[in-house]
Amino acid sequence: MKSFKIFIIAFMCCSSMLFGQNTKENDLGAWYMYFYTTKIKNSAFSIQGDVQYRNFNTIGDLEQLLLRSAVTYSPKNTNVTLALGFANITTGVIGENDDTINENRIYQEGLLPQKVGERLYFTHRIRYEQRFIENQDFRTRIRYNMSLNVPLNKNKIEKNTLYAALYNEIFINGKKNIGNNRIVNVFDRNRFYVGLGYGITKKIRAQLGFMNQSTENAGKDQLQFSIHHSF
To answer: What is the C-alpha separation between 163 and 196, in angstroms, rounded?
Structure first.
């Protein structure tokens, strides 16, 4: 119960930072996310995905609505997970402009968990994306994510566990020419995140964190609130 109170206090403090903002390029944004995974009985397959509502500000100024799902396969006698998935992304324009850009995305990924010592739970993920973006040529991108979860009051993440969460993810573009004489950089962006999570039940975790996203030309800070659900 004490751990849950700490998580709630952190959530309230971060929430108070969000409200009352105007929509500006350098505003602190907010991402609200739901991640799910469910195993197909008596098989090495499962289904995973996420829904993300991303805002330039607290809420209401759409940055992106992301809908993503994948079929995963875990080869026998390994802890590797392979995935084939599809995503649809609607991207908005900052401010009062309601224009949007649509993207469909196919992706493949490999996931490798790694435990170091008693409490360091690493996960390595590499993802290859094929991107079909409105009014652009076909694009590809490679992403590498390394995340770390550290239980603070127990040795593993389960019900009533308070834990620290960190990750860094780098994005590298494939083809630079995206059509109509437009060129993108090879380096697309980097995301660095630090947060605090709590195991509400054996199958549901809540997480609150801060993420900085940087490109060669700009950077933006985001608060992230996420629910992680396995069933």
So the answer is: 6
